[in-house]
Amino acid sequence: MNITIVGAGLSGLVAANELRASGHSVVVLDKGRGVGGRLATRRIGEAVFDHGAQFFTVRDPRFQQLVDAWLDRDVVRVWCHGFGAEQDGFPRYVGRDGMTSIAKHLATNIDVRTSSLVFSVLPAPQGGWITTLDTGDTHHSDAVVLTAPIPQSFGFAFTAGVEFPEDLRTIDYERTLGLLAVLDGPPAIPPPGALQNPDEIFSFIGDNHAKGVSPVPAVTFHANPAWSAAHWDTPHDEAKELLIAAASSYLGGAHITASDFKKWRFATPQRNWPDRHWASENATMVVAGDAFAGPRVEGAVLSGLSAAGAVMSANH
Q1: pTM higher than 0.85 for the full model?
Q2: In this prediction, what percent of the chain has a pLDDT beyond 70?
Q3: Which domains does the chain have, with CATH numbers?
Q4: How far is it, in rounded angstroms, from Cα 33 to Cα 2?
């Protein structure tokens, strides 16, 4: 089969690898400049930041098999087993060179086309689907896997004449405002270099130097969903200054020498669909992502595996 996957985040890349390994032809389209979605790593000068997903844990045996392979290939490593008093024994894994390195590994042998904004997905007269980009370029495929956030995937399905169940199409996402701060010295963040929900503003503070990602002091601050929602429409510079002021409590004697402000509109699903994917009646359109059967990295991976299985099972 020829299969088009919309979205080069974890679900899309995992599905692409499964389908390609089974002999199918796959193209992955993503509007971003790089792969990974919320597996996002970026630089400010010498500083390196994970500014989306900060780490992941493993509970599912099938996901553990994948992670073991990533460990063998030096794609991921163990950061710690919890933060502060939360030493629960579960490893917190991170990408060897930042979280994006996981996505780059998964994309190695896949036809991934970034900076490719999907305009529409419509039924082809001869069967299958025609995916059209904003450039006018088209891709004909036997099946389509949509892994964008649910509101975006719903838009494609709606114009294609595919109806989502109401409980699926109404899933919304928490928003996250973030601050990336380069420091002139070490921050006042205890080992192993992170704080979860330390106050009424921040949900996570990560010391990228202590984490082993950045060669120089660099801290990621994520505001919690309530604060982010309340300040989502605050002017950019004003919201950034509010976060800088709140971050000062965690800098110790260090000072911010450079910074950037980030907005994640689709950061975390507010609720989850109970299954690991959703498929149209003939399973030629399959929807996957971290809103299915569990959020975060593990949920996205398991959803991608499930989506690939659905396409192959229904179209032998």
Answers
A1: yes
A2: 98
A3: 2-171+271-314 (3.50.50.60), 173-269 (3.90.660.10)
A4: 24
The pLDDT of residue 314:
80
Q: What are phi and psi of 184, to 5 degrees?
A: -95, 5
The token duo for 25 is: 């032809």
CA dihedral 167, 172, 173, 175 (to 10 degrees): -160
45, exposed or middle or buried, with CB in 10 Å at 0-12, 13-18, 19+?
exposed
Q: What is the pLDDT of residue 270?
A: 95
Where b means 16+ CB within 10 Å and e means fewer, 58-78 reads: beeeebeebbeebeeeebbee
Cα atoms in the 13 Å half-sphere on the side-chain side of 257: 15
Which SS3 state, helix, strand or coil, does residue 155 take? helix
- Tokens 């030493």 -> residue: 87
- Is it the case that residue 86 has pLDDT exceeding 80? no
At 103-134, the pLDDT tens digits run: 999 999 999 999 999 999 999 998 999 999 99
pLDDT in tens, 283-301: 999 999 999 977 789 999 9
Q: What are phi and psi of 69, to 5 degrees?
A: -65, -40
- The answer to whether 287 and 153 are in contact (CB under 8 A) is yes
Paired tokens of 276 = 């690991």
Per-residue pLDDT of 169-183, as tens digits, reads 999 999 999 999 999
Query: Is residue 52 classed as helix, strand or coil in its secondary structure?
Result: coil
Residue 31 neighbours by CB under 8 Å, 6+ apart: 115, 116, 117, 118
Provide CB contacts within 8 A for 306, sequence distance 6+.
275, 276, 277, 288, 292, 293
